[in-house]
Design goal:
Rossmann fold; about 45% helix
Length: about 270
């Protein structure tokens, strides 16, 4: 006897920031496709010159490659370059989604600012770096939630918004003020919106990944990886992107229909064990 999640077949899901080969976004898109969803996959339109070596060697084509993987699973896929930090770009994305699919059911706000000059003490952070992190991580999720939330309300068929946050929004470690503030703000957005749209059958939740094995952390050496895992993660391993994708699928499923306004740590025990 097997147990399967339900309520996902032929639904339309939008996943932002899903173009990198080793990424949470790609895994979310693929797990939703395996569950029976059609996908809208967005990326920033990054130049192939900036791709890491493994993507270059694989002939990776960002969101186009993810779209091909989704289609290989028997689902429809629409890859779109979109800037979540720009309201007009988000509105254009929503209109294209409605034109192509006629509906939207799940919105996964996964796009995130790259690790850069924001990782510094508050007194030293470049204000431009601060603004970029807030614009992408927090304002981008706000724009997506506002525009697509209106579509969900108009459809009057429920739906789900899942914000991909981080344990960083709970731990608020030194030298991470911009990132931590953006993610803590995302928790507030999640809780407030959940209280506002619940009457329409729309759920809003956040997932807070811990240390996940993606290309975002390629600047760490193997020795640094081992030390961080050993020090901070009780389960003594990094998470796999698909483990975040599986949690997204659950929150979008019929079995997750009575869950809203929550911020789930998926982190190998990192927050609880600190």
């Amino acid at each position: 006897m097997t147990y399967a999640l339900t309520g996902l077949e032929d639904k339309v899901a939008v996943v932002t920031g899903a173009g990198r080969m080793r990424s949470i976004g790609r895994s979310i898109a693929l797990e939703l496709a395996k569950a029976g969803c059609d996908l809208v996959i967005t990326g920033s339109g990054r130049s192939p010159v900036s791709f890491p070596d493994d993507e270059k060697n694989a002939g990776w084509r960002d969101i186009e490659s993810v779209a091909e993987e989704v289609r290989a699973l028997g689902r429809r896929a629409l890859p779109m370059v979109s800037n979540v930090a720009d309201l007009d770009s988000v509105k254009a994305l929503a209109e294209k989604v409605m034109e192509e699919f006629g509906r939207v059911d799940f919105v996964i706000n996964n796009a995130g600012a790259a690790r850069a000059g924001d990782r510094a003490p508050v007194v030293d952070v470049d204000p431009a770096a601060w603004r970029n992190v807030i614009d992408v991580n927090l304002n981008g999720s706000f724009y997506m939630s506002q525009v697509f939330g209106q579509k969900l309300i108009e459809q009057a068929q429920g739906g789900a918004i899942v914000n991909i946050s981080s344990v960083g929004g709970k731990l608020m470690a030194p030298t991470t003020a911009a990132y931590a503030a953006s993610k803590a703000g995302l928790h507030a957005l999640t809780a407030a919106m959940a209280g506002e749209v619940g009457r329409y059958g729309i759920r809003v939740n956040a997932i807070c990944p811990g240390i996940v094995s993606t290309s975002r952390l390629d600047d760490l050496s193997p020795a640094q990886w081992d030390a961080i895992i050993d020090t901070y993660v009780p389960l003594k391993r990094a998470g796999a992107p698909a483990e975040i994708g599986s949690m997204v699928v659950y929150l979008c499923s019929k079995q997750g229909e009575w869950i809203s306004g929550q911020f789930y740590s998926v982190d190998g025990g990192q927050v609880a064990g600190r």
